[in-house]
Structure prediction request, 766 residues.
Amino acid sequence: MDFEFTEEQNELRRQVREFVESEVAAGTFEVTSKAIVAEVSKSFSRKMAQRGWIGINWPKEYGGQGKGQVDKMIMLEEMYRYQAPTGYHFMAERQIGPALMKFGTEEQKKEFLPRIVKAEDGAMFCLLFSEPDAGSDLAAVATTAGKEGDFYIVNGQKVWTSEGHLSDYGWLLAKTSFDESIPKHQTCSEFIIDMKAPGVTIRPLINIAGEHSFNEVFFDNVKIPATSLVGKEGDGFKQIMAQVDYERSGIERLLQNYPVYTALRKYIAEMTPEDRHSDYYGWIKDVMAQLEIEFNVGRLMCYNTAWIIDQGKKPTSQAAISKAFCTRYEQKLNDTAMKIMGPSSTIRKGSETLSPAIDVAACYLWGPSYTLQGGSMEVLKNIIAQRGLGLPR
Amino acid sequence: MDFELTPEQNMLKKSFQEFLAKECPFDVVREIRKSDMGYSPKIWKKMADLGWLGLVFEEKYGGSEGAFLDLFVLFEELGKAQLPSPLFASPVMAGFLISEAGSDAQKEAYLPRLIDGKKIFTVALPDETPVPAGRKTVISTGRNPDGDYILNGEALLVPHADVADMILFCAEDQNRSPILCLADSKSSGLRVSALRTITEERKFVVACANVRVSGKNVIAEADNAKAALERMKTKAMVLKCGEMIGGFKQVLDMTVNYASQRKQFGVPIGKFQAIQHFCAEMAIDLQGAQLIAYQAASAISSGASGEVEAAMAKAWCSDTYVNATRISQQIHGGIGFTDEFAVGLYFKHAKESELMFGHSKIKRQHIANAIGL
Prediction:
């Protein structure tokens, strides 16, 4: 049992922090919540790539550094503290790369992995999983990919496609078997699809924060080469289940609103001595200490999940626990921040006057999505109960 | 970073588990709780023979100089087994205070007897939370012309005081400065009265009427006493967290087991999402409790003060364990509410543990101060 990091890991943390802080000082990017996913900066991604920080935990044969998941977590923790704009490689590095290493053909690996690791052009990916009638019940996807000679013809609709409008490629789950007698979990396959291919239409969805992040994506007879298939036909659902543990293990769930925490601490620090002796301040101390405890718990859960992966084990239940906990923390952080800051916290960025540096209200408005995306809170609890605790299905 | 125990610690853990499973199954635990002694001298002797009482003490006093984590693992197992014994009172609270603040002569005189289990020590601590003025319990001291200390007043909830040979008082002088001193439990003027408490573990009011303590039995005074007390409390609090995560794990296991067996509407109730989600909540909280408690134990084990980690662990373990025992009562239904079924034991243990060494609100004040609020 050892909660300390190695010297090498402390050095990595120091280097990353130094780099990000110098970028912040240089004004390369704006420190704002959720930028780690939403801010797409090819030039920033390339700076990271030059330092070997994209694919840091990938095997060396694929251009990575061969380091562990814990090392990656350290690097990300420092990046996310300042909301470094990692949107360009975020999805590709976290999910697409590892999935290709596991299920992709040699050609696919050769085509995409070096591109992702170096943040070259054409390396940005989005996920095309959810559909209007396939959310938690993902195997119910109705988008079809029918094989015709050396091609698949894709028809259907996806929804909640984050950054779909900015991505070069989509990672698609579609139905490839139409035999009613086959269980639906064995009817889907995974594909890589060019988001600019003829027949692909992307329509923005504006969320309750008034922001455009996700989209609807329509496929109308989109012709993709048969070599776009990833893994085996009919194995799509199984393959995705192997990938989501990575999606759920990330420290981004805990840190995507770190600027809110920083802003909140600054706000409290600037309160008058008179206010600091009020009953209200006593309450502030209590809720802030609770946030501190929960942040610590969430952080330990993230590192624990990473460590389990480094031991070569599957972190299914642990990753679900970590995501369930961390997303709830984020919601609580934003809610607590608004309570402490009071009515003026409802003033949004872009106001003619008093426009806040950190749009806390927007962060609060983003809250509901945290416990929905990447497995809803309820699906996660099912996983914890059934796969973790062994309760009957 | 390593989230696993060492192979040696795992072996130790296994030996704790085997002993406790063999020596004190639930019916024995209940019998001991209801007994006049409040502990089993037979089991106590075996624990002493196995070296459990001296795990972290120096070899020259009969200890085995193990890591604090070893002791933490023991308390985790004791939390599962719910075995009442003077282990917390004697080697932990009294033993830590003596070894933190005592002179070499005092250590030589007391630690070996406390470690071999032949003598039982206990500690009388001041109130943890404010009480109405008229109910304030305090042991105050003055000096008589011979230089002896004279104790007066009352201390509440002193564990195993009836069987203790020595009682370590955290007393106050006229200037409210703390004094740690040891009194023989047979001292004249010292009276012990039994309390009936939530867990049925044996606790007492210790009343002192001009109890005389010679100067050589003063362990520490003023700032030294205060610091030793804080250090002891931090460690004891973390061991309490160990007990709590052990109890918490047991409660979750029992609840999952019950939900898998108990059938209603023709299916095990564990098939219902309402029940599954309750259990998942417990699993999330337990995972957090285990991580944060081990973090605190590791900090202390590596020689750090671990104060903030301990406060965080105590706050989180207290809140979540209490909550889990409430959920477990709801899932068990009527049977969980009966005295004969073991799950109620943890319901009581959780509440008592929550209030010892400060509940979460108190710990959060400490944490807020520590992070500069």
